[in-house]
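Task card 7
Instruction: Convert sequence to structure tokens.
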Amino acid sequence: MWHRISGYLIMLLVLISNVSALVIARRTFGGTLDIQGGIGTLVLMTTVGIGLAYYNIKKLQIDQHRAWMIRSFVYV
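Output:
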């Protein structure tokens, strides 16, 4: 039960941080196009990774879930 609750909390916090990163992307480090593109790419990678991890755990594919969670946190 603890693992499930903390997983949902982590998903929520990652999504909130992704939205926050997109909001400040124009002003960080000068807000040049390459910085905005890098932040956008990382936001997309972490969101897709978390989404695939959630999908895999709902399909009871534990190994795939574990792999996508590890990938997502490497991206974070």
